[in-house]
Amino acid sequence: MDLEESSQDGRRRGGAATRERILDAAAELFYAAGIRSTSADRIIESVGITKVTFYRHFRTKDELVVAYLERRAAWERGAVAQAREGHDAVEALRAIASGIGEASCRPGFRGCPFINAAAEYPDTEHPVRLVVDSHRRWTHDAFLDLAAKAGVADAPAVAGQLMMLRDGAMVSGYLGDPEAVAEALAGAYLAVIQAGHRPDEGGRRG
Amino acid sequence: MDLEESSQDGRRRGGAATRERILDAAAELFYAAGIRSTSADRIIESVGITKVTFYRHFRTKDELVVAYLERRAAWERGAVAQAREGHDAVEALRAIASGIGEASCRPGFRGCPFINAAAEYPDTEHPVRLVVDSHRRWTHDAFLDLAAKAGVADAPAVAGQLMMLRDGAMVSGYLGDPEAVAEALAGAYLAVIQAGHRPDEGGRRG
DNA sequence: GGCTATAGTGTTACTAGTACGTCTACCTGA
DNA sequence: TCAGGTAGACGTACTAGTAACACTATAGCC
Q1: How many structural domains is chain A composed of?
Q2: Which terminus, N or C, of chain A has the lesser number of Cβ atoms within 10 Å?
Q3: Which residues of A touch B119 (CB under 8 A)?
């Protein structure tokens, strides 16, 4: 039912829907299997279209990779915005921590798509890396804002620590114990924020 | 000169030296360019041997990948042991933090080879992932021991946080600001240890 | 010295599959 | 009409891995 419907949808609504179907399949496969080891042919087969159709929507595979990461970045920005909505900084961090914790426990969780992509694309000038960098800058700025709102002495330093914890939590959720992520991350967030209120201990040292 | 000498060395001392040369080249290329995008041919060319010689030392490319990671794991275990030598737990964490900070600043730093490898190998039963898991378990145990020696209330929880921070620091050193890693990591280590002494704040919550 | 065994490497050519991307030609529904 | 679809062969390059056969340096032995 669903399959048929979305296929008809693809025909009726034309290009935009097909593009979305390609992106859906790409997101699933790239994330699950890695980018380099997911061939364009594999995606094409999975969507059930032809090579020509695929290459009419995305001129190269890299262009699709970029689109995949950009869509994911937009989604994450929304999730962070939602976690912050109507909360103070500490509550927002708690919400972010439990969001990451929940994601870690979902079947098929494979860590952060951006970290994973960067592992596969060493060239810092590559379009894929530019998307990764841009999303990481945005995330870092969000943490910077939260650190400042939490009233720590050295907000940039604490923002770096919050970012570190986020990254580490994504890795731990993938390669470690997913069940423990939410609590450990929330506790660590709190710990660095609190240490940030006592400049001698958590911030810079001699 | 060097080339000639090591080539003669390879002949005189037989297989072990050639195997090492293959491993050296593989380590450099796998780490710098990623594993999947480094072909066996590329390694073979870089070492200056033939396909046949290569496959006489490593039956498959995966076998080489495993050997690469195992050698790297041994090196890291040595580095951690050295950081702990003659220090108490907190000093050891400081030494580990500055070690990671220094590594981050070295040109060509591309993060943690194990995290990167895991990004490219989704199958948890794959030999590569088994090496990754085994090394991560060892690292976690080392942190657990340090947390216990630091006298925190809930050592397993704090060990998870230390591990998170280590992973995040490796990512930050690659994709963020390498200069800031050492200090941020040392501060965060301290923060979670200190919070671990006040069970209500850093540990479990309601 | 001369013989042989052995281990390691070299050369060349090969299989067979996969990768990305292009090409021509035709179909369909608004 | 025409955008967007189908079908699938094709080009070119790379991928991992194998087969058959020749060469060389060392070591032990008569």
Answers
A1: 2
A2: C
A3: 34, 110-111, 115-116, 119-120
